[in-house]
Amino acid sequence: GVNFRKRMPTDRKHRLHAELMLSPDTPLIGCVGRLSAEKRVEDVIRAVALLEDSTSHLVLIGDGPQKVHLARVTESLDLADRVHFLGERQDMDIIVHDLSLYVLASSFEGMSNSLMEAMVAGCPVAVSAIDANVALVGNNTRGWIFRVGDIQNLAEVISLILRSPEQRKIRTQSAKEYIEGSYTEQRMLLSWQAVLEKRARPH
User: Fold this and answer.
1) Residues whose CB falls within 8 Å of the CB of residue 85, separated by 6 or more in sequence, listed in order
2) Band of the pLDDT at 5, cuts 50, 70, 90?
3) CB-side neighbour CA atoms (13 Å) of 89
4) Pairing state between β 83-87 and 57-61
5) Would you say 171 and 142 are in contact if contact means Cβ atoms under 8 Å apart?
6) What does the radius of gyration of the chain's CA atoms come to, in whole angstroms?
7) What was the pLDDT predicted at 111?
8) Per residue in 151-170, pLDDT tens?
9) How far apart are CA 194 and CA 6, in angstroms?
10) Is 199 exposed, middle or buried (0-12, 13-18, 19+ CB in 10 A)?
11) Among 22, 89, 111, 187, which residue's beta carbon has the most beta carbons within 10 A?
12) 3-class SS of residue 148
């Protein structure tokens, strides 16, 4: 579940921009999770390379077996100054507010907690069209969907999101309300409690 009661102090806004020594208006695209093949982080790096607007930066939060490979891909695409490997972080609840966009490109995924955290924080989300992601994002109603492994499609979706402030506002509000209404820690605990109580009743 997601605990959305945490509120970010206003003095921490743009903390990630400051850490990366970037202007506060630099668009930050974020990927959160293990750097492993099924997460398809390489797709996101290659999609960023296709963007016509070269002002956005990609931040990769997490670690894993593909880190060295992904760093090499980044260098081969001449993106070393725009892709930032941040490793594991304990302050996601703060830095998620600095992201212009959260991307989840996985070919396989359970119900992603980091996706729910991004949605409840009001961060626009773009996700691969696998069942678990679509269950949260809906049919392009609470975020944006792209085809798994389709780098060109992903690049187009990223470009569309970054230049569509009105749609960002509409979909992030819808996403926030949906997660707060369906997937908060308290609501999920009550749901589990109801299931356990039902099983405990004598037949």
Assistant:
1) 60, 67, 70, 71
2) very low
3) 20
4) parallel
5) yes
6) 18
7) 86
8) 999 999 999 999 999 999 99
9) 26
10) exposed
11) 22
12) coil
